[in-house]
Design goal:
single chain, 330 residues, alpha+beta, Lipocalin, Serine Threonine Protein Phosphatase 5, Tetratricopeptide repeat, twelve-stranded mixed sheet
């Protein structure tokens, strides 16, 4: 189905230290506070609206001037919803999007230009196996401010019009004739820098190993916390919540406080200790390591960890954008 102006309501969250941040930082799309929707005219008398419920994206930002440098967004075609299951099935079928063959819609910027009231993004949209150059204008909806959770936040709004037939999305003859060739897309993007000091460990049923490590880091140092992790995982693994998320949060809290050497040590330990986790979880660990090494200025290790992340999950947009940023600096 074509897009005339898809309204995209989105939020970006970033993993950065509180002080001493590197010049370029990756903001990740916060899908919990985002809506990606579209509309198309039907028969000239009404319109059909829908959403994509699964998507991911990252914007690389120069934090000193708060200028977006590049962006990558991926939308899962299988997640399309219009309120009617039969219609959703048709849209995912070879008649329209052909989701089995073309599972992802991809937008990647080639340049972002600052304007008086916002930004002009020029990039390539790949949809249904066809790539076209698309411009998206973004305007400031809200300047940077602190939200109720202590996160720094900024909001942008924008829109673009596309022609579905430019991307080979025709549909059966009847629908091709009654559906408009244009689809509307709009964007409201809320970007935030998370305050990791306020994010809690998960100790509901069992005490979080991350929470215990964080207490030990605070009193005895990171090496003692690493030793504690290894011993308890070997001898008392049933007594604690040993999920990877808990250990990664220790590394993120250290990054937030600009304790980069300690953060890298914890994240490298996690990469080794959870080597048998699923590919997406391991990719997340390597992507976070890449960002930490980039902040340290260790470009070679940052590139290596990005590449490892993308081997495990080629659609990991934070790793894609971190790698693009590192290679721009060559």
């Amino acid at each position: 189905m074509l897009f005339r102006r898809i309204y995209l309501i989105s939020a970006f969250s970033i993993l950065v230290p509180a002080i001493g941040a590197s010049e370029n930082v990756p903001y990740d799309l916060d899908t919990a506070h985002s809506i990606l929707s579209f509309s198309i005219t039907l028969g000239g008398v009404t319109s059909v609206r829908g959403t994509f419920d699964e998507y991911r994206g990252t914007v690389m930002v120069n934090e000193d001037e708060f200028i977006p440098l590049s962006a990558t967004v991926l939308i899962d075609v299988h997640s399309i919803k219009t309120g009617i299951d039969m219609r959703d099935g048709d849209l995912k079928s070879p008649k329209f999007f052909d989701a089995e063959k073309h599972a992802w819609i991809r937008y990647q910027s080639r340049g972002i230009e600052k304007k008086t009231d916002g930004f002009l993004v020029v990039g390539d949209l790949t949809l249904h196996g066809v790539s076209k150059s698309i411009e998206i204008r973004l305007k400031l909806f809200s300047p940077e401010r602190t939200d109720p959770w202590g996160n720094r936040r900024i909001t942008l709004v924008g829109g673009v019009s596309l022609n579905r037939k430019d991307f080979g999305i025709d549909g059966p003859r009847f629908w091709s004739e009654v559906l408009s060739d244009r689809v509307d897309i709009e964007l409201v993007a809320s970007a935030s820098i998370l305050n990791y000091d306020k994010i809690r460990f998960s100790s509901h049923e069992k005490k979080s190993i991350g929470e215990l490590m964080w207490e030990t880091v605070s009193t005895e140092g990171v090496e003692a916390a690493q030793k504690q992790f290894r011993e308890l995982r070997r001898d008392s693994s049933e007594g604690y919540n040993f999920s990877l998320r808990e250990v990664l949060l220790v590394g993120l809290k250290l990054r937030h406080q600009n304790r980069l050497e300690e953060a890298v040590a914890v994240l490298e330990m996690a990469a080794d200790a959870y080597a048998n986790e699923d590919g997406e979880s391991r990719a997340e660990t390597y992507a976070l390591l890449a960002q930490a090494y980039a902040q340290q200025g260790d470009r070679a290790k940052a590139i290596d960890r990005c590449e490892k992340a993308l081997e495990l999950d080629p659609n990991r947009t934070d790793a894609i954008e971190t790698l693009r940023s590192l290679k721009r600096s060559e």
